[in-house]
Write a sequence for this structure.
């Protein structure tokens, strides 16, 4: 059954490093994916762009949008940004309402976002808190209510840059070997943070090794996630 995926990052490139392979896999199977950024990461995650003389915040946002849009396209996804600002990311009532409306419009089966803890980036745990709250408000806590509601989506956290310091306990591994070339192609686009490509290529190989040892399957590359919502199954 084709799935509808919503990936929400604090900044425009967060989805790429942590979940681009999974996005490509779902879209290759006939599913759809929307990548939603709460901000462009124009202040805190665009160091390479700010090295250019005469750089402006408007131009940084434009470049970040173009790069994220192209990267999302290469894994079969659509990109959108709420442009709420970063470092600090501040979620106003209007920003929350915009996010709730995205949930209601998209009605995703699966939502992926940041961990609830990150000692190095205050925008990431705020994104988790915001996404978690918007998910609950859009679904009406799973019961009929006086407003339009959607069915609750499965909620996952993608892997942070330093998992051992961010409360991340992977319990779901996705084999991305068949689409890893698409992830590499997407990472090639992100010139504003090109230094991360090598790190996340190596991480995919390490997680592939972990997934192989867990499953016994021949897995070369994988992405790790932590599922937050309990799984409801017909049988073990």
């Amino acid at each position: 059954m084709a799935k509808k995926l919503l990936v929400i990052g604090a900044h425009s490139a967060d989805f790429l490093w942590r979940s681009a392979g999974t996005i490509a896999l779902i879209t290759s199977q006939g599913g759809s994916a929307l990548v939603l950024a709460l901000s462009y990461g124009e202040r805190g995650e665009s160091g390479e762009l700010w090295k250019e003389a005469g750089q402006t915040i408007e131009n940084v946002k434009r470049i970040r949008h173009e790069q994220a849009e192209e990267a999302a396209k290469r894994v079969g996804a659509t990109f959108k940004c709420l442009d709420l600002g970063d470092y600090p990311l501040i979620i106003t009532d209007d920003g929350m309402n915009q996010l709730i409306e995205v949930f209601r419009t998209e009605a995703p089966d699966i939502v992926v976002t940041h961990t609830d803890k990150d000692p190095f980036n205050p925008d990431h745990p705020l994104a988790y808190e915001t996404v978690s709250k918007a998910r609950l408000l859009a679904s009406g806590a799973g019961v009929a209510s006086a407003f339009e509601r959607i069915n609750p989506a499965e909620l996952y956290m993608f892997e942070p840059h330093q998992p051992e310091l961010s409360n991340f306990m992977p319990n779901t591994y996705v084999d991305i070997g068949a689409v890893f070339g698409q992830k590499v192609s997407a990472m090639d686009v992100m010139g504003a943070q090109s230094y991360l490509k090598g790190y996340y290529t190596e991480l995919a190989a390490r997680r592939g090794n972990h997934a192989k040892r867990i499953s016994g399957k021949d897995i070369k590359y994988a992405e790790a996630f932590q599922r937050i919502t309990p799984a409801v199954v017909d049988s073990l």
Observations:
- The mean pLDDT is 95.
- Helices lie at 14-28, 47-50, 57-74, 93-106, 123-139, 180-189, 196-215.
- The chain has one domain: 4-227.
